C-alpha cells in the first residue's frame, strides 16, 4: 500500500478495544488519526479535525451512526465507511441511502479496511495522489489519463471515469446500479445496458478477450481482477 502523509481519519466506535486497534494500525500506516466514542463527540471532532475519511460504527448509544452519517453528508466533504456488527441488508441499504460510501461487517480484516480506505481516498480526493499505480494500471487524474502496462489508453471521458472506478475498487463486486450512480450520476435516465456497452469497449481497448481482467459475475455485476 502507498503511504500518504496528511491524510486524516476519524474513527468513531463505542468499543475502546476497536478504537485502540484501529488507531494504532492506521497510525502505523502513516495516517493522522483521531477517535471518538459517540456521535456528538464525533461531530465536534469533525469540525476541528476536518478528516478525509470517517470510519463510523452504526450501533452507538445516543446518536447512532446513521444519524451522524446523515448530518455529515449534508455539510462535509468526507468519505464515510460504516461498520456494523449485523450483516443485515436493510442496514446496508439504509446507510448507503444516507450517503455512506462503503460498508463493512464486524469482525473485519484490517487489510480489507485499509484497501477500502485507499479506494475512498482515490475516488474522493484524487488530487492527494497525483499518479496512482495499481497493478498494471497507472491513473493520472490531473491529466485524466490511464496507462495499462505502460501503454496509454485512448479513452473517452466516460470510459475514463468507468475504468478509474473499476480499478480503484478492484477486487470488489460492483453492480450496474452502483456503476450508473457513480459514473453516470444519480439522475441518469437511460438504460442499464449502457454499462455493458462501455464494458465491452474497455475490454477491447485492454485486449481483455477472455474477460480475465474485467470479470462479469452473473446477477451481481463486474469485478476487476488485477493481473
3D architecture notes:
This protein is an alpha/beta fold and 227 residues long. The protein folds into two domains: 8-126, Rossmann fold (3-Layer(aba) Sandwich), CATH 3.40.50; 130-224, Orthogonal Bundle (Arc Repressor Mutant, subunit A), CATH 1.10.10. It is built from eight helices and eleven strands. A five-stranded parallel sheet has the order 2-1-3-4-5, sandwiched between helices. β7 and β8 (145-148) form a beta hairpin. The longest helix is centred in the middle third of the chain and has 15 residues, at 110-124. The mean pLDDT is 86.
Number of domains in the coordinates? 2
Shape: globular
What is the radius of gyration? Answer: 18 Å
Beta-strand percentage range: 15-25%
**How many helices?**
8
Say which CATH homologous superfamily of the largest domain is assigned.
Response regulator
CATH architecture of the largest domain: 3-Layer(aba) Sandwich
**Which percent range fits the helix content?**
40-55%
CATH level 1 class label of the largest domain? Alpha Beta
Low-confidence residue ranges: none
Q: What class would the helix/strand composition place it in? A: alpha/beta
Largest sheet: 5 strands, parallel
What is the topology, as strand order, of the major beta sheet?
2-1-3-4-5
Order of helices and strands: EHEHEHEHEHEEEEHHHEE
Distance between the termini: 17 Å
Number of beta-strand segments: 11
CATH fold-level topology of the largest domain: Rossmann fold
Mean pLDDT, all residues: 86
